[in-house]
Write a structure and sequence with these properties.
339 residues; alpha+beta; Lipocalin; 14-stranded antiparallel sheet; 6 helices; 50% strand
Length: 339
């Protein structure tokens, strides 16, 4: 990853572009086209898996404002961010709006419910490839539509088991403004495959989770364990090289404490603290730079539910990611989070 006064804030593109550039040169000489095709397929799979993780607010929180947690406390050997991860977080824009429907009772212990989510993930960066005097601009956008059906089984007042079947469609596009003369020579190999391209991805994303609700020192807490496994394939590609499968597993353990606070205009409110560990498998591991990382958070929520409202809760909080290429802190807006 090159730097020249401006950060190459997305290791993904800089790294893949350098490799793809080398492969394109080989393609001009011999059979490097196969190498380039493999690189493009890998880029698509890993970029998609990373976007799935970033778009899921339960796995990564990016918000209104990023900050360096090291300025406020000494975290010792725990990696809560560095210059590269801070720059990457600042380059990313993510918006996610989840909406869940009231559960419907099927029997004494079984319920079913539905949920949908619309998400957007975007980034903008300046890329230095070979000549520091030439700044190439690179913009990416991903749009995600997600839907799920859940089956909930209440073992007792404390334990709940949920099986979910979900699917999502992702549309990705990017725009690269060539300025570097070396890259201009490679444009015919890169455009429509790695750069200045778009593609779609469909995925199934089943999940299973269990939740325990109890009290400790007079305070309510939840412990949730969940496994999700996304598996899909690209569609509507610009080239044969972009046709690839995508797979990533996410295993999370979450401990949440709820502290009731005074009502706000007759509405229930609370402070919520959260500790979470996420383990990854599949295509998301390399770009996250780890197979596991941690998330810490604290937020203030207000109940806004009503019979005609789609917004159940709203609030504001602070989230810190530790141990990944996206380590750092954010101020986040909370929508439809459980109180």
């Amino acid at each position: 990853m090159n730097q020249s006064g401006r950060y190459l804030v997305k290791w993904l593109t800089s790294g893949w572009l350098l490799c793809a550039g080398s492969a394109a040169v080989q393609a001009q000489q011999a059979s490097g086209a196969d190498i380039l095709s493999d690189l493009i397929g890998g880029f698509v799979a890993q970029n998609t898996a990373l976007t799935v993780v970033v778009a899921d607010s339960s796995l990564i929180s990016l918000g209104l404002m990023d900050f360096d947690p090291n300025e406020f406390a000494d975290f010792g050997d725990l990696n809560v961010g560095n210059e590269e991860s801070f720059a990457l977080r600042k380059s990313l824009r993510t918006y996610s709006l989840p909406w869940s429907f009231e559960p419907q009772k099927l029997s004494e212990h079984w319920q079913t419910s539905y949920g949908i989510r619309a998400s957007y993930v975007g980034s903008s960066q300046d890329l230095i490839y070979d000549e520091p005097d030439y700044i190439n601009t690179f913009d990416e956008e991903s749009f995600i539509l997600y839907g799920e059906k859940n089956w909930l089984y209440n073992f007792s007042e404390a334990w709940q088991f949920t099986l979910s079947m979900s699917g999502q469609y992702l549309y990705y596009r990017n725009h690269f403004d060539y300025q570097d003369p070396t890259l201009l020579l490679l444009r015919s190999f890169l455009d429509g495959q790695l750069l200045n391209t778009s593609y779609g991805v469909w995925m199934v994303d089943p999940a299973v989770n269990a939740v325990y609700r109890g009290t400790l020192f007079g305070q309510r807490f939840d412990y949730k364990i969940q496994y999700r496994h996304a598996l899909g394939h690209t569609i509507q590609t610009d080239s044969q090289s972009q046709q690839t499968s995508v797979e990533t597993g996410r295993f999370s353990n979450t401990l949440t404490f709820h502290f009731d606070t005074p009502e706000l205009y007759g509405r229930q409110s609370q402070v919520r603290t959260l500790l979470r560990r996420i383990d990854l498998t599949g295509d998301a591991v390399e770009l996250m730079g780890t197979s596991h990382y941690y998330q810490f958070g604290v937020g203030w929520l207000v109940d806004t539910s009503s019979p005609d409202s789609w917004l159940d809760t709203i609030g504001i909080g602070i989230s810190v990611n530790a141990g990944s290429n996206l380590s750092g802190g954010s101020v986040v807006i909370l929508f439809n989070e459980e109180m």
